[in-house]
Write a structure and sequence with these properties.
The structure is a single chain. By secondary structure, the chain is an alpha+beta fold. The chain has four domains: 89 residues, Uridine Diphospho-n-acetylenolpyruvylglucosamine Reductase, domain 2; 118 residues, Uridine Diphospho-n-acetylenolpyruvylglucosamine Reductase, domain 3 (2-Layer Sandwich); 143 residues, Alpha-Beta Plaits (2-Layer Sandwich); 80 residues, Alpha-Beta Plaits (2-Layer Sandwich), CATH 3.30.70. Strand 8 and strand 9 form a beta hairpin. Helix 1 packs antiparallel against helix 3. It is globular. The protein starts with a helix and ends in a 16-residue tail after the last helix. The structure holds flavin-adenine dinucleotide. The site of flavin-adenine dinucleotide (FAD) has 37 residues, from strand 3, helix 5 and strand 10.
């Protein structure tokens, strides 16, 4: 009855159309991308603008009705799922604002705009947006702010928080806070964009942001390198990061994961043999410092139409002018000087680069062919990352003998995505998470690199955050969301 009254009040405030109650339509909003988290809700509310969001939040606060903000629903920790019957506040309708200020190299973006749409708008202005991730065609800008998404370009541009110059949001009493001027130097009090980034919808509903844009990439070259051990791959990544300022990405994969992607996505083998560990690296020319040249690939990149040659027989045919190298020549030189490289494929053309990236980007979908994995995304200090990677599979099979562990990640930042398939059910999943997160904490790592805490990891937050930090988190939440209606079952552990 009370719930019907809330829905009626919502309809009076924002109209009938944005208040969805048809179970068939709502089905797409109550479960997550992985299939691991499925909830239920009385309604999905889709306001079209900030005023509509403010009205919804104010009504929910007045009626003490919890809500779950939701963007593209690509989150991997259950943070956007109404696990306890909350109303879903979908922000996908907030797409009207997307304006690029090329002179300032900034953009103002509505929360519902897709990351790929922001990329396209920035690109049309000769610029780029610094955050990129494989879910770019479904993830919203608001969702990436709420999760402080990382992705493939953190090495070069930092995480989402690092892009934020201003934010507009609706806090828990329905009031709107807005500071979107985008002044690069603005020291007037608390930096609310930093606070809201990574708050996972628990402190406010992001409705728009002002983000910095970066120079567009003029040329790129990508290499896939094979190593005999994870340790050698990690050492190589560190050497590249320290010695190659144009390094834009450094990702690691292991032999079982690469084999799986090849099978699941029907790709050809990128290198002639199998290697224990692989690095996918990219260098990007953003300043025109490199010679223009379409340099051909070496190493047999599928579909690139170029000669297949082992890196040992290197013979890059770039067309760079004397004295300056092309990006591909620079990459080849860097790879040639690296210890431990057993084989490599390099590409300097768009098609070849895309083909090499596919081996890394298609890990997530390939692993999902085994069903819903247990997903953990963790960060380790680089010094212990190789031993962690070697230890985890045995830790998992010690608990679930039939399970498979898939490991890959953003190696330059010490990130490892630990995906486990074929476990014996929820109880076993918990024990695996307990063991892996415990190992991470014992090694001085973080239990969340970039996906956030969500509902999935809240009970393990105390592994990384002290009681006084969690108490401070609760006080901040109380100040911005006094009725406790914004994503009450996310991030913070249940109160003692
Ligand atoms: C194939 C694949 C690859 C991925 N790769 C990466 C990666 O490389 N790096 C990475 O960081 N993540 C990655 N992700 C995870 C996911 O894409 C990100 O977490 C993304 O930021 C979520 O955006 P979304 O719009 O889908 O948000 P949702 O999933 O809808 O929501 C995520 C969280 O943010 C909250 N939220 C959403 N919108 C708002 C808003 N406007 N205001 C307040 N709170 C809000 C939700 O309540 C929830 O807690 C990947 C996911 C997939 C499926």
């Amino acid at each position: 009855m009370a719930r019907d009254h809330v829905l009626e009040t919502l309809r009076d405030a924002i109209g009938d159309t944005p208040v969805l109650t048809d179970p068939d339509i709502m089905a797409g909003y109550v479960g997550d991308w992985t299939g691991r988290f499925v909830g239920r809700t009385a309604a999905v509310v889709r306001p079209a603008n900030t005023a509509g969001v403010a009205a919804v939040v104010e009504i929910c606060a007045r009626h003490e009705t919890p809500l779950v903000p939701q963007g593209g629903n690509t989150g991997l920790v259950g943070g956007g799922v109404p696990t306890r019957g909350e109303i879903v506040l979908s922000l996908r309708g907030l797409t009207d604002t997307l304006s690029v200020d090329a002179a300032a190299a900034q953009a103002t973006v509505g929360a519902g705009v897709l990351v790929s749409a922001l990329h396209a708008a920035a690109s049309a202005a000769g610029l780029a947006y610094g955050v990129d991730l494989a879910s770019r065609d479904s993830a919203t800008v608001g969702g990436t702010v709420a999760t402080n998404a990382g992705g493939l370009r953190v090495l070069q541009h930092g995480d989402t928080r690092a892009q934020l110059l201003g934010v507009e949001a609706v806090v828990g009493d329905g009031s709107i806070i807005s500071h979107l001027a985008g002044l690069p130097r603005d020291n007037t009090g608390y930096h609310l964009p930093s606070l809201l980034a990574g708050s996972e919808g628990t402190l406010g509903v992001v409705t728009a942001v002002r983000v910095r844009l970066v120079p567009a990439t003029r040329a790129r070259a990508v290499g896939l390198l094979g190593f005999a051990s994870v340790e050698q791959a990690v050492t190589a990544a560190s050497l590249l990061r320290n010695g190659l300022p144009a390094l834009a990405a450094a990702e690691f994969m292991l032999s079982p994961g690469l084999d799986l992607v090849i099978r699941a996505c029907h790709l050809s083998r990128p290198l002639r043999g199998r290697h224990a560990a692989y690095l996918l690296i990219e260098i990007a020319d953003k300043t025109g410092a490199y010679a223009v040249g379409s340099g051909t690939a070496v190493g047999g990149i599928p579909g690139s139409g170029t000669a297949s040659r082992n890196i040992a027989g290197r013979g890059i045919t770039g067309t760079g002018s004397a004295g300056r190298a092309t990006v591909l020549e620079t990459l080849a030189d860097a790879v040639a000087g690296l210890p431990g490289v057993q084989d490599a494929s390099l590409a300097g053309d768009a098609r070849g680069c895309r083909a090499l990236w596919a081996y890394r980007e298609r890990h997530t979908e390939s692993i999902s062919t085994f069903g819903t994995p247990v997903k953990m995304d963790v960060t380790l200090p680089l010094a212990v990352l190789p031993s962690f990677v070697e230890t985890v599979p045995a830790t998992v099979t010690g608990i679930a003998p039939e399970a498979r562990t898939w490991l890959f990640g953003h190696v330059a930042e010490g990130n490892v995505h630990v995906n486990v398939t074929g476990t014996g059910g929820e109880a076993e999943d918990r024990r695996i998470e307990d063991a892996v997160f415990g190992l991470v904490a014992d090694n001085g790592g973080s239990i969340s690199t970039e996906h956030g805490i969500g509902t999935a990891k809240r009970r393990w937050l105390p592994l990384n955050r002290s009681p006084s930090e969690i108490a401070a988190f609760r006080r901040i939440k109380q100040a911005l969301d006094p009725a406790g209606i914004l994503n009450p079952n996310v991030l913070l552990p249940d109160a003692p």
